[in-house]
């Protein structure tokens, strides 16, 4: 009997979306759109991904622990999970009066994702 729990934060599938968005299916079955524009702009190693064709060559890294374009260019699944949570919070907070609820929910998810258990 296999009692190992799958890592729901690992990537099952990825494809390019609009601009520098990644359409991700996580191992747990959840689907999300993660905009990696800022992340790519922050690191010189990702400069080749400014080219649409190069960005479109994204694939799932070994074991789902990353998405990658080459051995030198990858983003970990944990980083993508965090970016997705942050972007989801901003979208929810933009709804106005629900901002406090959205912030509390987002902080709880980030703490859970980090293993803080808050």
Task: Describe this entry's structure for a reader.
The chain is an alpha+beta fold. The protein has four helices and six strands, in the order βββααβββαα. The model has no long low-confidence stretch (mean pLDDT 81).
SSE arrangement:
Elements: E1 11-16, E2 21-26, E3 31-35, H1 37-42, H2 52-56, E4 59-60, E5 66-70, E6 73-76, H3 77-93, H4 99-114
Antiparallel strand pairs: 1-2, 2-3, 4-5, 5-6
Helix pairs in contact: 3-4
Mean pLDDT metric: 81
Largest sheet: 3 strands, antiparallel
Low-confidence stretches at least 5 residues in length (pLDDT < 50)?
A: none
Distance between the termini: 31 Å
Tally of individual helices:
4
Helical proportion? 25-40%
% residues in beta strands? 15-25%
Strand order within the widest beta sheet? 1-2-3
- Could you spell the SSE succession in H and E letters? EEEHHEEEHH
Radius of gyration: 15 Å
Number of strands: 6
Overall shape: it is: globular
Which structural class matches the secondary elements? alpha+beta
